């Protein structure tokens, strides 16, 4: 498992219950200490991949400060970040625009310099943040050439995906070779028991040697006890029954269902609290212990999955908090 810092680096995020996680204390020193405490818990739990982005507020700064304070050497840890969105919330929970998407060459050039200034030699993986076919980034020759230059300088180049067309975007990325070698060696995509469409494309990517990182394994908290949406009551009952059968909480069950996918190389926890992180990490043991049962349960529970359009519309309606 890896730890994502989307919920740790800034006051506002869309995850259910985010405001409560931070106890509404947005003082920078308090948020730094909070992020470092969760990072310490992750390190103790054996997590060695950390995921940030330029647009996650101060996430790169918090991560870099923690790595240096704990004297963790670059070779002991894997660090990924992303470019393509600029943070514009001004350290507020409510903002007119939280982030601005721009996949152009000037933004890539500015943001790689910013990421490197903070993360230095720790930065190993640099991802396009939420690439889509519409954004045109995979057809932008200038951007692709710059990414190839960064690859040739030693970075692993990846892309993250978002929206109902993750599979098409990934297949397009898989076809991009520059200088006789694939440009993208890593993909970060959403897959969870509610959103399973990207599975076959992720299996293809994994089989072709791409690293597969899974994000939003808990559907931004919708697959936890926090989801009290009346429209989810029946599915929550099914999930709770399965969780009770295995003696764990909903989050542990849902993460274990991702961990047993043969193509999932790294599954991210998005926890912003140490106790949730511990409950998330328990999924590793559950996946080992109940692998066959989990596959069988997923086969029996196909009704949990939502059509991609419904899933992404629901996600888009989650409130920043
Ligand atoms: N386009 C992209 O590239 C993109 C998009 C989204 C995410 N990501 C990456 O993926 C990472 C993970 O995504 P995510 O944050 O959306 O993760 P997620 O795993 O889908 O959701 C995390 C949410 O579940 C809650 N949770 C976890 N365990 C819980 C428990 N036992 N009880 C109650 N609530 C629980 C967390 O609450 P607490 O905060 O209270 O722990 C948090 O609100 C991000 O940090 C980021 O690095 C990338």
Describe the model.
Helices cover 42% and strands 16% of the residues. By secondary structure, the protein is α/β, with parallel strands linked by helices. It has a single domain (2-316), classed as TIM Barrel. The chain has an 8-stranded parallel beta barrel with strand order 1-2-3-6-7-10-11-12, surrounded by 6 helices. Strands 4-5 form a two-stranded antiparallel ribbon. Strands 8-9 form a two-stranded antiparallel sheet. The mean pLDDT is 97.
Q: State the helix count.
A: 12
Question: Helix/strand/pairing class, anyone?
Answer: alpha/beta
Fourth-tier CATH superfamily name: NADP-dependent oxidoreductase domain
* CATH architecture annotation name: Alpha-Beta Barrel
The overall strand count is 12
CATH topology: TIM Barrel
Helix content: 40-55%
CATH class: Alpha Beta
Placed side by side, the strands forming the largest sheet appear as 1-2-3-6-7-10-11-12
Mean pLDDT: 97
How do the SSEs run, as a string of H and E? EHHEHEEEHEHEHEEEHEHHEHHH
Poorly predicted ranges: none
Give the tags.
TIM Barrel; 321 residues; eight-stranded parallel barrel; binds NADP nicotinamide-adenine-dinucleotide phosphate; 42% helix; 12 helices; 16% strand; alpha/beta; two-stranded antiparallel sheet
